[in-house]
């Protein structure tokens, strides 16, 4: 009798024990290695856990391609990625949109020397214009689209060259190129690096689509809803945690946006087409 009572008590205690939190794995496409991921998103990890009631596990990926593979194999549940990467990930993994991460002052610019010969977009015809890596939304795709919107065709009306921002600024100062493509933050950095040189912007693109958090296509709707609700109800706390990361300062002043559709990224698809890429089943560069 005593033994049976003890067994019943044990069963009762087990039934009263709290269930373990569901574990959700989170990756970022432009951060390699666990150490860097923890430095940038360790605070976010804790904040999202508190807000959602889920256990958030950081999952490093070595590339955008490995992020797609991890989504399709179920190794990772959430991926934070940029707009240029998203349209390819959408094609290859069909993920669910969770929430957009707004980046204030996220737009492309074409800069020239303020006292140089280029005074308008028309002056760039037949000239060299520098861009960053082809996969960059704000320093290649966006600037190319901005020029296209003003009537200059990529690789026809001007010659695109690939250079890092500071190297491009030096080339611009020497007169080797006519203009450089930068986003708002990069132009500020270039001006800081070359304080004795005056730069001017001759073209500015529209605000670019935001970075976006996606979930693997078969992640439970209930789990996705918990995560989305956490961003809605505790967005201020989560953003404060995000901003603990040095590289995450690009999100300062931004918000988490839940009214997001895949069609919001059609502008990115038009950018790819502008540079001659008509399919989205592989990452450029």
UniProtKB/TrEMBL annotation:
What Gene3D superfamilies would the database entry show?
A: Periplasmic binding protein-like II
Q: Which UniProt keywords apply?
A: Signal
Question: So which domain of life are we looking at?
Answer: Bacteria
**One Pfam family it belongs to:** Phosphonate-bd
Can you list the GO cellular component terms from the UniProt entry?
periplasmic space
Say where the protein is mainly found: periplasm
Q: Where in the cell is it found?
A: Periplasm
Family under the similarity heading: Belongs to the bacterial solute-binding protein SsuA/TauA family.
Q: Which PANTHER family does the record match to this protein?
A: ALIPHATIC SULFONATES-BINDING PROTEIN-RELATED (PTHR30024), TAURINE-BINDING PERIPLASMIC PROTEIN (PTHR30024:SF47)
Q: What is this protein called?
A: PhnD/SsuA/transferrin family substrate-binding protein
List the source organism: Paracoccus shanxieyensis
């Amino acid at each position: 009798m005593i033994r049976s009572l003890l067994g019943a008590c044990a069963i009762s205690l087990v039934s009263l024990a709290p269930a373990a939190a569901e574990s959700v794995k989170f990756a970022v496409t432009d951060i390699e290695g666990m150490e860097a991921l923890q430095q940038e998103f360790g605070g976010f990890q804790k904040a999202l856990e508190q807000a959602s009631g889920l256990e958030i596990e950081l999952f490093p990926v070595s590339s955008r391609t490995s992020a797609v593979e991890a989504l399709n194999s179920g190794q990772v549940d959430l991926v934070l990625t940029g707009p240029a990467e998203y349209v390819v990930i959408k094609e290859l993994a069909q993920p669910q949109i969770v929430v957009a991460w707004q980046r204030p002052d996220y737009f492309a610019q074409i800069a020239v020397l303020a006292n140089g010969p280029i005074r308008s977009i028309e002056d760039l015809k037949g000239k060299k214009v520098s861009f960053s890596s082809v996969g960059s939304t704000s320093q290649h795709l966006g600037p190319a689209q901005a020029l296209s919107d003003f009537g200059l065709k990529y690789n026809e009306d001007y010659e695109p060259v690939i250079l890092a921002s500071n190297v491009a600024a030096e080339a611009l100062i020497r007169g080797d190129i006519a203009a450089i493509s930068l986003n708002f933050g990069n132009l500020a950095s270039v001006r800081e690096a070359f304080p004795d040189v005056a730069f001017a912007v001759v073209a500015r693109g529209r605000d670019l689509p935001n970075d976006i958090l996606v979930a693997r296509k078969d992640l439970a709707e209930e789990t996705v809803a918990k995560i989305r609700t956490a961003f809605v109800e505790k967005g201020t706390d989560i953003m404060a945690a995000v901003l603990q990361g040095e590289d995450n300062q690009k999100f300062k002043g931004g918000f988490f946006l839940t009214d997001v559709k895949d069609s919001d990224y059609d502008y990115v698809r038009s950018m790819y087409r502008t540079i001659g890429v008509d399919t989205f089943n592989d990452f450029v560069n």
